């Protein structure tokens, strides 16, 4: 009976997810997915099933190889022209990071390796679309196997590129819909191209059956301000034509909502617009608390296929530039000249502000396709500084590129990742000095950069006094520090609830780091995700930190919250939070007592599953 029930339970759960509410036909079904772009939309649902699907392409061979090669070449040319057109269309509206998807597609399509693989497959006698499917799937599988969430989701981008090429191969260009009224668009797989081809005014929200929160389509919908829910398990045929509510905060969709629910959500929509107006009011100002304590708000950058980064005038500089992504997207190590070009564009975009560039942090969940590392425990293995110290050639090229890029701009700081001992720092410092001397010989005007280390391995907490004698600054990577302190893999969904960013020991570590840095007069910044979390940012300032580095999307919220709070209030919050045994729930309660409504509304995406809490 137990076995039987277990089997039936799975079938029932699946049927309910598919919209068959056979226990209570009157109950309004709720469909759940991943909230990928915040906001609420109310309107008619439109299911679009016109997209051709790469997985519908089946094995087919050809005798006319030359014709298939020609078709492929024409499809690639059309796709390239199309990306250029779409990029231009969106250029005025969006920031550079969001547009990076079109640059990535262009880059991939121009990549000789992909073109050669496609041609070679056709040369074997496969029809162009079948060759395309095989090559795209093998590339996508390579990305899908990577444990880094960001890179894993690039598999989606490769598939999207394959879909686009398929449109042009089959000559079935995605139709530009003319809806009679704005709609909630439901698609099998949301792509950047769909978002770019439909006028923004016609999209109330987008719902995608496939995809995840960090796909480029999700990034694009956030940049366009369109609520989005991804990864929805439902039967879309049953939704089409109905009135619906999409809650981009909680990832919920309510088809045929009750009058009460509609009323409630309409109120939320108006609260939401009030809230964003409020936040925008402080976005251009310097970050400071209500009582005038200036806080440096810096940018985390580099997690983009684009080599440059958008200029953000409202930040105090770049607190963390992750250099590894461009290494990961290439077929070989980028040359010193290539790196020089990339770093210079970042340094000059922030020419009068500080830019902290981190040296290569590969290994762990970031394996280079051209240098596979096979380890049982990659996060405890050959990672970050451990790898670069074993490859001084690679390290020296990167250091020289950074130093040369900084000549005349003089705003470079160098940050070393994953340092766990003084010896590692000393060895790295010797190589930095060597790179500096080499650059200095050719360019005597080069300035010495500031050198810092990441605090992300717990051992650093106890050797900070030794470090203080050696480094100019430190930067706390709370993402890894939390992972190593709690012994919980930051990428493993199975243990995601144990990865607690506000765990009492994380807070105690943050307090310890701050007081040690203060005692040794050592400048310290936080560049992990905690710094951009609304409650995290308030807590950190309450603990005494005055430099926070975060993703662009959190800058305005954090500035607003700081401007609402006095330093005294924040200190009280930190004192209370440090006394809480259970981390997140109790810390949030303390925070709520400080700034009830605004704080709840702003932290809703990070900390809660339900937007309704805003109403409390
Ligand atoms: C961190 O670990 O907190 C950090 C900023 O580095 P990354 O997320 O790149 O590992
Ligand atoms: Mg890290």
Automatic annotation (TrEMBL):
PANTHER family: PHOSPHOENOLPYRUVATE-DEPENDENT PHOSPHOTRANSFERASE SYSTEM, PHOSPHOENOLPYRUVATE-PROTEIN PHOSPHOTRANSFERASE. General (non sugar-specific) component of the phosphoenolpyruvate-dependent sugar phosphotransferase system (sugar PTS). This major carbohydrate active-transport system catalyzes the phosphorylation of incoming sugar substrates concomitantly with their translocation across the cell membrane. Enzyme I transfers the phosphoryl group from phosphoenolpyruvate (PEP) to the phosphoryl carrier protein (HPr). It catalyses: L-histidyl-[protein] + phosphoenolpyruvate = N(pros)-phospho-L-histidyl-[protein] + pyruvate. Belongs to the PEP-utilizing enzyme family. The keyword Aminoacyl-tRNA synthetase does not apply. It is found in: Cytoplasm. Keywords: Cytoplasm, Kinase, Magnesium, Metal-binding, Phosphotransferase system, Pyruvate, Sugar transport, Transferase, Transport. Residues 32-154 form the Phosphotransferase system enzyme I N-terminal domain. InterPro entries: PEP-util_enz_mobile_dom, PEP-utilizing_PTS_enzyme, PEP_util_AS, PEP_util_C, PEP_util_CS, Phosphohistidine_dom_sf, PTS_EI, PTS_EI-like. It comes from Vibrio maritimus. This is Phosphoenolpyruvate-protein phosphotransferase. GO terms for cellular component: cytoplasm. Residues 280-565 form the PEP-utilising enzyme C-terminal domain. The lineage of its organism: Bacteria, Pseudomonadati, Pseudomonadota, Gammaproteobacteria, Vibrionales. Pfam families: PEP-utilisers_N, PEP-utilizers, PEP-utilizers_C. The active site is at 216 (tele-phosphohistidine intermediate), 527 (proton donor).
């Amino acid at each position: 009976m137990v076995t039987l029930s277990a089997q039936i339970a799975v079938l029932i759960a699946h049927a309910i997810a598919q919209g068959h509410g056979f226990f209570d036909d009157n109950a309004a079904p709720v469909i759940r997915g991943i909230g990928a772009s915040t906001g609420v939309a109310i309107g008619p649902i439109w299911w679009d099933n016109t997209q051709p699907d790469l997985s519908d392409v089946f094995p087919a061979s050809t005798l006319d190889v030359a014709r298939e090669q020609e078709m492929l070449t024409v499809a690639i040319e059309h796709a390239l022209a199309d990306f250029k057109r779409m990029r231009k269309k969106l250029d005025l509206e969006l920031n550079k990071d969001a547009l990076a998807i079109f640059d990535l597609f262009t880059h991939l399509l121009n990549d000789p390796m992909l073109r050669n693989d496609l041609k070679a497959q056709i040369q074997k006698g496969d029809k162009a679309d079948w060759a395309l499917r095989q090559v795209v799937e093998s590339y996508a599988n390579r990305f899908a196997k990577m444990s880094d969430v960001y890179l894993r989701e690039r598999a989606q981008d490769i598939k999207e590129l394959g879909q686009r090429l398929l449109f042009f191969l089959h000559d079935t260009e995605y139709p530009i819909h003319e809806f009679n009224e704005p709609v909630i668009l439901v698609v099998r797989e949301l792509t950047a191209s769909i978002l770019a081809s439909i006028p923004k005014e016609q999209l109330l929200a987008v719902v995608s059956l496939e995809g995840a929160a960090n796909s480029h389509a999700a990034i694009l919908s956030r940049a366009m301000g369109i609520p989005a829910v991804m990864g929805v398990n439902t039967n879309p045929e049953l939704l089409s034509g109905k009135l619906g509510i999409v809650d981009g905060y909680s990832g919920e969709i309510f088809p045929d909502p009750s009058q009460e629910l509609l009323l409630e959500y309409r109120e939320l929509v108006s609260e939401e617009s009030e809230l964003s107006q409020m936040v925008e009011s402080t976005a251009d100002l310097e970050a400071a608390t209500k009582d005038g304590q200036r806080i440096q708000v810096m940018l985390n950058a580099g997690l983009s296929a684009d080599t440059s980064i958008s200029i953000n005038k409202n930040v105090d500089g770049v607190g963390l530039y992750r250099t590894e992504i461009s290494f990961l997207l290439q077929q070989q190590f980028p040359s010193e000249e290539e790196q020089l070009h990339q770093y210079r564009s970042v340094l000059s975009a922030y020419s009068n502000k500080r830019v902290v560039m981190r040296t290569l942090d590969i290994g762990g969940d970031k394996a280079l396709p051209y240098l596979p590392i096979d380890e049982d425990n990659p996060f405890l293995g050959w990672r970050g500084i451990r790898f670069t110290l074993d490859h001084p050639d690679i390290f020296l090229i990167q250091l020289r590129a950074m130093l040369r890029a900084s000549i005349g701009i003089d705003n470079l700081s160098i940050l070393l990742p994953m340092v766990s001992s003084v010896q590692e720092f000393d060895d790295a410092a010797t190589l930095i000095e060597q790179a500096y001397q080499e650059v200095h010989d050719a360019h005597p005007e080069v300035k010495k950069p500031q050198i810092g280390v990441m605090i992300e391995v717990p051992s650093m907490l106890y050797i900070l006094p030794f470090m203080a004698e050696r480094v100019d600054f430190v930067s706390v990577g709370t993402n890894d520090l939390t992972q190593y302190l709690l012994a919980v893999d930051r990428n493993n969904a199975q243990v995601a609830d144990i990865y607690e960013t506000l765990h009492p020991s994380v807070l105690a570590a943050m307090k310890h780091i701050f007081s040690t840095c203060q005692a040794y007069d050592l400048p310290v910044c936080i560049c992990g995700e905690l710094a951009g979390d609304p409650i995290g940012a308030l807590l950190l300032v309450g603990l005494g930190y005055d430099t926070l580095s975060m993703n662009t999307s959190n800058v305005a919220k954090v500035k607003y919250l700081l401007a609402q709070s006095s330093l005294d209030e924040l200190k009280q919050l930190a004192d209370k939070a440090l006394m809480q045994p259970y981390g997140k729930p109790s810390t949030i309660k303390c925070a709520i007592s400080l700034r009830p409504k605004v704080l709840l509304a702003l932290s809703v995406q990070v900390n809660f599953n339900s937007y309704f809490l805003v109403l409390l």
